UniProtKB/TrEMBL annotation:
It holds the Pfam family LRR_RI_capping. Keywords: Acetylation, Cytoplasm, Leucine-rich repeat, Nucleus, Phosphoprotein, Repeat, Signal. Transmembrane segments: none annotated. This is Ribonuclease inhibitor. Forms high-affinity heterodimers with RNASE1, ANG and RNASE2. Coiled coil: none annotated. It comes from the Eukaryota. One of its GO terms (cellular component) is cytoplasm. Residues 1-20 form the signal peptide. It is found in: Cytoplasm; Nucleus. SUPFAM superfamilies: RNI-like. InterPro entries: Leu-rich_rpt, LRR_dom_sf, LRR_RI_cap, NLRP_innate_immun_reg. PANTHER family: NACHT, LRR AND PYD DOMAINS-CONTAINING PROTEIN 12, NACHT, LRR AND PYD DOMAINS-CONTAINING PROTEIN 3.
């Protein structure tokens, strides 16, 4: 699996990324161009997808000591560039964050960087080396950095083939009393259950680690059991645990539920793309419902959850007042499951703010229940319904609920829902009547010019506060295109995302 495909796949499970990523990339591409070149803030340098010839690199290097944060993501950097960056690390006490992700640095490049990192003048706190073609060979030097550099609090090494031996070397560094690392990202690093044994020793002795990402490593249930026991027995107050696509089954859920029940520090738990099923969800929900559990984010995308699992999740949604975000993307919940979830959304004790239901086999049949839930729920801010065949009829029903005075929805995603211009009148009413609505996605639809004109007229209304209208792969004529561009000129704070 290529890194690009991995990134896009991960993006589908995360809020707002689908349109925010290209916008951010576009800004970065425009940000570099001599003579203006650098972004406005001298404290931060952010350059993406831009390669440098020798003269431009030399000119850039001469300015690097001005910055506290440097991001050179996918800039074609190699070993020779690392020599200059290592020198910078050795001399600049101001630099606290360095992001070199998606560059072919290789082990040789990182070895050169480590020389600068080990210099006493270096005060770096955050280091990003994701997808830099690294192997176990560079992990000995990284271990030395972990042992000696107490200022380092974040290390991102995802998408590198570190393997079992590389992972073990890093754990030796983590064990050192000088190491104060708080965030460790090791997704897609070809780690195995042997690494979990070493990592468990770290968790049993160190209290500094707060964020741990082990996603997309073939760990299995036995390794997860070992990890959970270490979390329960050790002093670690982990806040975020990510175990997506780790070959976990329902057999691990009893141990994970115990962690949820006994670790009130844990506020973010991601277990997406593990086939735990309804039986596993029922066990996890027991842990979440424990009064000691303070979970805020629960990501359960592609976990083979069906309608019976939703019955348990509805209780969590309705009663767990710490829970703010839940992702159920890619589960075949069906309309029956959605009916259960709506019961949870109607509970006056619910505090859920973000609900992701993309690609959940929903139809128009469940949309009246969704509408009814929205009409009484005043806390939900984001509803992601893309990729469900709810059609115009379903959207019209949902709009009725959104228009209710109780509803405070800010973001509504309806892309890939078989929409036409028929639903646009209802959407236009929502745009005008719901001042809380800031984002509306109707991508991959067939609304055509007729639908575009209706939405544009609504956006022109002074009551409209919409900031983003997202229309990926939605086709219209040049006349409608002119109208959209004129609208952006009329309302500078408004943007059409295509």
């Amino acid at each position: 699996m290529t890194v690009l495909f991995r990134t896009l796949k991960s993006c589908l499970a995360l809020p707002r990324v689908a349109w925010a990523f290209p916008r951010a990339a576009g800004r970065a591409l425009r940000s570099w161009g001599f003579p203006e070149g650098l972004e406005a803030s001298k404290m931060e340098l952010d350059i993406q997808c831009q390669e440098f010839d020798a003269s431009k690199w030399k000119e850039l290097v001469s300015t690097l000591n001005q910055h506290k944060t440097i991001r050179l993501d996918d800039c074609g950097l190699g070993v020779s560039h690392c020599e200059d960056l290592s020198s910078l690390l050795s001399t600049s006490q101001a630099l606290t964050e360095l992001n070199l992700s998606n560059n072919e640095l290789g082990d040789s490049g990182v070895d050169v960087l480590c020389k600068g990192l080990l210099n006493p003048n270096c005060n770096l706190q955050k280091l990003w080396l994701r997808n830099c073609n690294l192997t176990k060979a560079c992990c000995e030097n990284l271990r030395s950095v972990l042992k000696s550099k107490s200022s380092l609090t974040e290390l991102h090494l995802g998408d590198n083939s570190l393997g079992t031996l590389g992972g073990k070397a890093l754990c030796q560094g983590l064990m050192d009393p000088n190491c104060q690392l708080q965030s460790l990202q090791l997704q897609y690093c070809e780690l195995t259950k042997e690494n979990i044994e070493a990592l468990s020793s770290v968790l049993l002795t160190k209290s500094s680690l707060q964020t741990l990402n082990l996603s997309n490593n073939k760990l299995g249930d036995a390794a997860v059991k070992h990890l959970c026991q270490a979390l329960l027995d050790g002093p670690c107050n982990l806040q975020s645990l990510q175990l997506e696509s780790c070959d976990i089954t329902h057999a691990s859920c009893k141990d994970l539920s115990a962690v949820l029940s006994n670790k009130p520090s844990l506020i973010e738990f991601c277990i997406g793309e593990n086939r735990i099923g309804d039986a596993g969800i029922a066990i996890l929900c027991q842990g979440v419902q424990n009064p000691n559990c303070k979970i805020e984010k629960l990501w359960l995308w592609e976990c083979n959850i069906t309608a019976p699992g939703c019955k348990e999740l509805a209780k969590v949604i309705g009663t767990k007042e710490t829970l703010k975000e839940i992702s159920l993307l890619g589960n075949a919940l069906t309309d029956e499951g959605m009916e259960f979830l709506c019961q949870g959304l109607k509970d006056p004790k619910t505090k859920l703010e973000s609900l992701w239901l993309r690609d959940c086999d929903l139809t128009a049949a469940c949309c009246k229940s969704i509408s009814s839930a929205l009409s009484v729920n005043s806390v939900l801010k984001e509803l992601q319904m893309s990729g469900n065949c709810i059609g115009d009829e379903g959207v019209i029903d949902i709009c009725e609920g959104v228009r209710s005075p109780n509803c405070k929805l800010e973001s509504l995603w309806l892309g890939q829902s078989s929409l036409t211009a028929v639903c646009c009148e209802a959407l236009a009413k929502v745009i005008v009547e719901k001042p809380s609505l800031l984002e509306l996605d109707v991508s991959y639809s067939h609304i055509g010019d007729e639908g575009v004109f209706k939405l544009c007229e609504a956006v022109k209304n002074p009551n409209c506060n919409l900031k983003y209208l997202i229309l990926y792969d939605t086709y219209w004529t040049s006349q409608a295109d002119k109208e959209l561009k004129a609208l952006e000129g009329l309302k500078p704070e408004f943007q059409v995302v295509t």
